[in-house]
Hints:
The structure holds two protein chains of two kinds. Chain A is α/β, with parallel strands linked by helices. Helix content of chain A is about 30%, strand content about 30%. In chain A, helix 3 (about 100-105) packs parallel to helix 5 and helix 4 (about 120-130) crosses helix 5 (about 145-160). Chain B has a single domain (about 65-335), classed as ABC transporter involved in vitamin B12 uptake, BtuC (Orthogonal Bundle), CATH 1.10.3470.10. The interface of A and B includes residues 19, 55, 81 and 84 of A.
Amino acid sequence: MQKILNNLFEIQAVSFSYEKKSVLRDFSLTLNAGVFYGIIGPNGCGKSTLIDLMICHWQPTTGNIRYKGKDLNTYSRKALSREIALVPQNFYINFPFTAREVIMMGRYPHIARFAAPSDEDIRILKDIMTKTETLAFANRYITELSGGERQRVILARSLAQNTPVLLLDEATSNLDINHTITVLNMVAERVVKQHKTVIAVMQDINLAALFCDELIFMKQGSVVAHGPVKTVLNQEILRSVFEVESKVRSDPYSQALQVIYKK
Amino acid sequence: MISAGSQLALLLLLAAVIVISAGMGYIKIPFTDVLRIVGGQITGYDGWLADIDKLHPVVVTDVRLPRILTAAIVGAGLAISGAVFQGILLNPLADPYTLGVSAGAAFGASLAILFNIGFMGTWSIPLLAFSGAVSTLFFVIYLSSDSGGLSSNNLILSGIIVAAILSAGISFLKYVADEQVSVIIFWLMGSFGSKTWTDVILTLVFVGFGFGVSVFYARDLNLLSLGNRTASSLGVDTKRAPLALLVTASLVSAVCVSVSGIIGFVGLLVPHIVRSVTGPDNRKLIPVSLLTGAILLLCADTVTRAVLPNEIPIGVITALIGGPFFCYIFRKRQKARG
């Protein structure tokens, strides 16, 4: 077991504007390793932009992001792709790669440009395909899979990347409840057993409360509240972030806080 | 799965087609003689040429081989740039001309012909065609780029707009061209007639360079098909890699067009057919497209040069064969989907 690494991500006073539209304002957040984080907030509050900044796809307009104590910019793309994996929200692919080929793409950061996959790569691939139940359609074309099957392939691809950090951008939005729970259990297990860090943008607050260790509430490009589920999830925060009336109660069956709404 | 063995087989097939094609034409030369002539030229050993008609080595090395090799290299160039364009634009229907490269080249060539620009001798037309193609490319890139880099929809749209404007320009040039109009039309339809070793070397350098760059970025091109964001998280420089590939593929097609005129369907069809055999993995798609494109365009050029009673412009042949064939595979796929 590794020791807890504090300050894995330090996001300091970050602002980001997209074509003059301010998306994140003076955004600060510190994340530790070995924690399952849930990011919650209304549509358009800057959650996906935050994810883009964390994978270095965009650069902050002002402020800076440090990862493991070093500025994110100082990492090469290749080095970063061995540290942080992303499961995107919308996924569309126009070419008939097989599911296996797509999942193997997750190993690319570990394989030299012109080299063939090693036996170890193939073993990891098999293992992950078994766990994500994607083995059944390994040789089918990604273009012909259902939305849910495709989402599982993409998740398997990110797991094959085998990074310490996994970013999920509404990764379970296309899955039925059975597969949603399977997937979230799988990543939660990696947090506990392998000390991985999962940062998941989620729409379903009850699922977030069930699986996450800590929640981050965002509104209009800023953090409204951040802390362990038990301390931050309450009806006041839901009213201020989502403008909905709700009741938050401790549910004996799920042994977690759960939210119920009124029409 | 297409293996290195299949690529070697295609390479041997290409060599065979080159040798057989060099023997075909108005003067028939047995392919064994072709081999002896080529062997003699390379080794400098005259013994092999002893019992061959004095005219034959001239026909093979000075007349036929430059044309044959140019056709093969241009076919290869159009095929790989088509594969790269389809990969970057995330569109299996893109081709080397999607960004208006051909319209730019045609406009440049038409200007050169109309105003009889001859400061570079016989190179004036290819040079202006090339300048037209390259400036069109950069204008299209400029038109479509925003703060976040290049989006494939913007590129395709800008390409269509610019090509439409240039086509109108070409029509105008044809209208005012009077007797030169036939020269313009003939150039536009493409031809490998009277190609020299300089054409061979020129296209070889550009296509070779383009092939190198495409193969280097082939794996990144695979990842780009997952979308920019995901590609970025898998270690691809999503600003540099697409731009490098786009510029390379356009330069390759610009050189091909300036040397041979506008030859359609090779760049669209070859990667399309090859993909259905190799799958979309660009590390296989690009080398196999290169060889297939070379073989197919060389065969088409040999048909018009040596088989048909009168030479038909190569661009017309590829469109007449490629177009209906494309309809056929397109329809077959729709049916297969049910």
